[in-house]
Structures are given as C-alpha cells and as structure tokens.
Amino acid sequence: MHVLWFFVLLQTIFAINVDSRYHQLRHSFSPPYVRGDSSILYWSASGSTLINDEYISLTRAERSQKGQLWNTRRVESKDWEVTMRFVVGSSSSWGADGLAIWYTKERPNEGSVFGSEDRWQGLGVMFDTFDNDQAGENPAIYAVMNDGQTTYDASLDGKHKLFAHCVLNFRTSNYEPNSHKYPSQLRLSYFDGVLHLEVDSRGDHNWENCFSASVTIETGGYFGITAATGGVTDNHEIVSFNTFTYDSPDTVYTVPSQPQRVEVADPVPEKEIERKPSNLAKSLPGVDAFMKDVESRQVQFSVALTTRFHELGSKMSEMDKLTNNALREVSTAVLDLNDKIEVSQKNIDVLKADLDSLSAVVLSLSKTLEIVQKYAQDAAQVTETHYRLNIEKSGEHDSLVESHSWGFWIFFIIFQLFFWINLLWGRSVVEKRRRFD
Length: 437
What we know:
Elements: H1 2-20, E1 22-29, E2 43-47, E3 50-51, E4 56-59, E5 66-71, E6 80-90, E7 98-104, E8 110-113, E9 121-128, E10 140-147, E11 162-167, E12 172-173, E13 184-191, E14 194-200, E15 208-214, E16 222-228, E17 235-245, H2 270-274, H3 277-283, H4 287-393, H5 396-436
Parallel strand pairs: 6-12
Antiparallel strand pairs: 1-17, 2-5, 3-4, 4-17, 5-16, 6-13, 6-17, 7-9, 7-16, 9-10, 10-11, 13-14, 14-15
Helix pairs in contact: 1-3, 4-5
C-alpha cells in the first residue's frame, strides 16, 4: 500500500514538473548563441555591447561605457521566471557602476540609469556595485518600480523608490575576462503577485534568498539587461538568460473581436480553475526539496553540456589553426618552387642565347677558315711560282728567305683573326649575363 502511494506521489510530482513551467526560447539565450544579422536571435544589442562566442560583454573594465541588450518580443504571460548566469568584476578590489535587469512597457534608449533611460515604466532590478551615498551597503541589489514620471536618484542608490532590496556581494575581484568557470547565477520569478530573487554569487549552487515582495507588474513587457561604468570600472558579462512561464508556450493574451458563447455542461468551480500546480506542489511534503534537487541536476547537466560544447569548439579552433598553418606552408613552398622554376627558365634562356651566339661565332669562324685556307692555297701557288722564278734567276738562298717571309705573314693573319673573334664573343657573353643579373 505504501509503495502504491509512493508511485502515485512520484507521478503527481512529475506531472507537476512537466505542466508547471515552459521554456520560452524567444525570450532566452545561451551559448552557443543563435545569431541574427548583427545580434542574437530575438535580441537587440547596442552601445558598448560585444557578442563573443561564449559570453556577451555589456562593458569592459574601461571608463564611461554603456551597453544594452533588449528582447525584441513582448512576454505575454502573467507569471514568469528568469535565470541568468553572469559575471561582474575586474582585477581591482572595487568597481562600478553595475548592471540592471528590466521588465518594461517599452524598450528605453541609452541613458544614465545603469546604461538605460531614466523615467522608465515598469520594473528595474539593480545590481549596484558603487557606494554613492557612502552608507557602506554596497554591493547591493534592489528592485524599483517606476511609472514613467519619476526621476531616478543615483546619489541615494535608488533608495527613495525601492520596494525590496538586500546587501549581497555578487562581485568578483581579481577577475580576468573570458574566465567563466564559475559565473554567478540568479533566479528572478514573478508569481501570484510576488517578486522573488535568489542569488548564487559564487556559482557553487549555494543559493541565498535576496528578497520576496508583493508588487503589481503589468503583462506584456520587454526583458532587457544593461550595464554601465563611470570613473571606476568593471567587466559586466552575461553568459546565459533563460525565461520560463507557467502558461502554455502558445498562450497569447488577446481580446476576441466579437463575443463568443461557450456552453459548459458541468462547469468547474472557479477556485479549482485558478489553482496553480505550484501551489499543489507546495502542499505535498518533501516536494520542494525534490524540485530543488531536480533543478540542481538540470543546471549541472546544462553546465556539463555547455562545457562539452566549449571543448568541441576549442578542438575545432585548434584544427582550424593546424589546417591554416599547413595551407600556409604548402602555399609558401609552391611560391618558392615557382620562383626557382622562373629562375631556371631564365638561366635556360640565357644559355640558349649563348649557344646561339657560339654557333654563330663557330659558323663565322668556319667561313673565315675557308677564306684563309683559300688565301693560303693561293699564296702557296704564288710562292711556288715565285720560288721557281727565283731559282732560275738568282739562286736557292734568296728564294727560301722569301718563302719564309710569306709563311710568317699568313700565320700572323690567322692568329689575329682568332684573337679578335674570341675577344668579341667573350664580351657579348659577359654583357648578356650582366643585363640578366
């Protein structure tokens, strides 16, 4: 019997868990971000906001920065809950000014209230890091409602208009950007007219209750996150923002154009219709602890899944670097090879030109030798004829002297021809190489 009741209780709990909350993707973002034209899908970034692969930087630790991130769709549910992972901090032990979460009737422009416009209409939850009023109560978190007519007094840290607050150090000292191993977390919910805030300032699932306060918030507002720095600075970074509602995901509050008649055979009492599953869960013993354990496990799974995505992204980035380096080396080698081929082609052209010149010189030399040979033959005939004549007239000694004189001049002429031809050819080769170099 006890076992049967146990299974009935489990079935009831899981039915409550499934039916009580719906994740609204149009009002949420988490890494890896789904990007639009210049921002995240369903969100509009402006000011100093930068969207990175793993986080969104509203401001860096630089002076006078203002960053905004606004949801482009209205929230059409009366009750909602948001969870946000974020970092506020720098390398300094103190910083400013802080960030704010907004739920407003319209999307304000950039302004002086944590990067957003003053005199807003709706809710602002301020995470204030700078102690403007010197009361020693910062960092602090406070909720402020504005009707669109009241000016926010930053010198009093908004205390003239706040309706709920807590002093809680959510800031991280000695922080370096892009080190989101343990970001802070918050859970802000509005249910049955009560605004409730819990904060896990160190990211270790040690949740602290900040405030619970009754307030009336109109349906159909825009979510926004803004931050600002002044003379003192901080990094204001958002990792994820997830919105849940207690209505159907397709619920839209509209007024029908014409009255419609609905007949109900057995009408259900109004009290039973208005009864919320979360109220039933609160009435069951041990359900709150179980729900917190389930939610904790869900957060752990989300963190583990995000870590795996980051590891995969790091490996893909490393592979891209290796591929780029390999392509760069191959490209450099191809360029070097092309240069060497071009130099070799030029050397071949020069060598070919030298060979052509040498061939021309050899051909010219061959023709010259033929001419010299012909002249030598003619000279030999003349010498022989002259020799015979000299023998007949004056004797053998004078003829020999004359024949030796002709032989000397023939040798001298041939030597001069070879000398000048080689000299001219050598100069032409040197001149061509000089022009090539």
